[in-house]
Each structure stands twice: as structure tokens, then as C-alpha cells.
Amino acid sequence: MTEVTAQRAEPILEVAGLRRTYGDAPGMLARMLRQPARRVRAVDGVDLRLRPGETMALVGESGCGKSTVARCVAGLESPSAGTVRYSGETMERIARRALPARKDVQMVFQDPYSSLNPRWPVGRSIAEPMQVLGLETGRDAAQARVAELLSQVGLAPEDAEKFPHQFSGGQRQRVAIARALSTRPKVIICDEPTSALDVSVQAQILNMMKDLQEEYGLAYLFITHDLGVVDHMADRVAIMYLGRIVEIGSREAIFARPRHPYTRMLMDAVPRLDEVTAGAPPLGELPDPANPPSGCAFRTRCPWAIAACAETVPPLEEVDGRRAACLRSGEVA
Ligand SMILES: Nc1ncnc2c1ncn2[C@@H]1O[C@H](COP(=O)(O)OP(=O)(O)OP(=O)(O)O)[C@@H](O)[C@H]1O
Q1: Nearest protein Cα to ligand 1, atom 3
Q2: Ligand 1 within 6 A of CB of 75
Q3: How many A from CA of 63 to the centre of ligand 1?
Q4: Which of 106, 112, 213, 236 could form a disulfide linkage to 218, CB 3.0–4.6 angstroms apart?
Q5: Complete domains list, the chain, with CATH
């Protein structure tokens, strides 16, 4: 499917012009030291469309705004501007009026403890979202559903009585996935769900997530810095740099012929991408997000940069079956 066709298909999730700025007002310490506010445009005009049953990977170095997109899309944070729609319904309306669409989106975090209460038996945490939304209120029905969910993620019904610390890291992530599945969502936002796990456990969880996707027609917005994971999971890929998407298209197109210099450099750095994320800079230092370069924010690290790159922010334009935001995208491949 070309990027043009993908854009035409009916989306389950549609993000338009999403912006999230932090630090509009200076904090107390900054005020005492008479420092100006440190204003960061963490997300600066992101558009995304996710179709039912599809996996879109959102990729980029630490600090480029991936988690902020995830939190805004999951309704955990309000955007400064732009809209998030599920099946055409805005997230604002969904959150305010507890519309049924609220059950359609769930989130899985890197750290399962973010969604599991350490003092609750996991069965209670798994049942919580469906009970909050009034889906399975009777005790027996809720228990039966928890047992069903545990077996869907490869655990035993008796595991409902255990506490989070009694599981291994991989099992704990299975529990977090069972909790996310409890409301029968259509979309799951996954923020680095396997990056804290050993490689072999990682593969098991990813394969299970693929099976669950197939069985329930789930769409995943999959946030990761790991291109191996992207290759394994994604139908489409969006590459983010300092708050903006710089390239978006099918996994095949992007892996075969990256058209943005940043995508290309990420791919060249593949074996060391964990170092990129850990801050070691095979690509050079990321500029200060509070003070990004004019024009194309990547130009200060870009071997293809020319004077014109400092003038304007290049728009995402169709090139070679995907969209890329680079004045020289035609020459990059
Ligand atoms: N609550 C906050 N207050 C102030 N700045 C924030 C806040 N959350 C994020 N930021 C800033 O917004 C930018 C994007 O952060 P974000 O966590 O979304 O990036 P990321 O790509 O998900 O990185 P990571 O992989 O490290 O989580 C960063 O410059 C970060 O410092």
C-alpha cells in the first residue's frame, strides 16, 4: 500500500495538528533566579492516521516527543492544540462525557508497575478498567473475565491471586497486557513495552502481541527506539525528530530506501541505537529541545544540509511511495 492509499483508508485513530508545549510559565526556582521560562515544544504539529488492525511504529531518539504523543493520544494528557479522534469522536468529548469510545483505547507502558498496583492481587488490577467503565460489574462475571484474560496472555487463572512482585518481568508485562485487553479495546498505545526485558522474553511478548492483534483486530501505536522491534512489528513507520514527523510510510518503503537523512542515519546506527537512546552520540548531540535550530531542526547534524535548510521547515511531501520532510529527499536514497 502506498502512503497515499494509506491516507485514504478509514482510520480508527486520527491525530491532527497535535501540539504539546511544556514550561509556558517559569517554575518557582526559575522565578527566584529571574530565569526565563524553558519552553519546549515537545510535540509540534503531528498528524497520524491508524487503521483498524494496523501497527504504526513511532520511532526516534530519546526526547523527540514519542511519549508525549502517546500520552496525548491515550487521553492521559491534554494537547496544547490539535485533535485526537477515535472513530471520528474527539478525545475531549470521550474523556468529558465518558462515551463508550473510552473503552476503545488502552495503554501499555514500559514499566508494568505504572498500571499495576503493587498492593493489589493482579486480578483486581486487571478487572479495574472494565469495572470503572461499567462493563463487567458483577463479581462472578468479572472473575470469569479475568481468568479468560489471563489465559489469553499465557498465564493461569490462579495467577489472579498473586501480587505483581511474584511474577517475572515478562509475566508482569503479560498481566499489564491482560489489563489493557480487559475493555476489549480497538487500539492499544504501547510505549516501549518490551525494552526493559531480555531479548528472548522480548520476542515472546512481541509474538504474543502479534497473535492477539490478529485474533482481536487490534491496532497498535507502537512507540520504540528499537528498529529490530519496528521491523518485527510494524506495518507503517513514523520517524520523529524534535517534536515533528520527518518521514512516514510503509515499513517496506522506509527500510528499503529511507528518504530522510535522519531515518538514514538511524538505520546506519542500528547496532548502536540503544547507545543513541542512552545518550552516546554516534549521530552527534541532539540540539537543545528548548532552542531548536531554525528551519529544518535536523540540519545541524545533517550531512546533506544546505543554506536553504535554515530558512523554512520543510513540509512532509510525497516521495517514492512515502512522505518525507526534506528539501533533498530526492537525493537521499
Ligand atoms: N512534564 C514535562 N515537563 C517539561 N518537559 C517535558 C515534560 N515531559 C516531556 N518533556 C520534554 O519534552 C520533550 C519530549 O519528551 P518525551 O518524553 O515525549 O520524549 P521521548 O521521545 O518519549 O523520550 P524518551 O524515549 O526518553 O521517553 C523532551 O525535551 C522532554 O524533556
Answers
A1: 22
A2: no
A3: 5
A4: 213
A5: 3-248 (3.40.50.300)
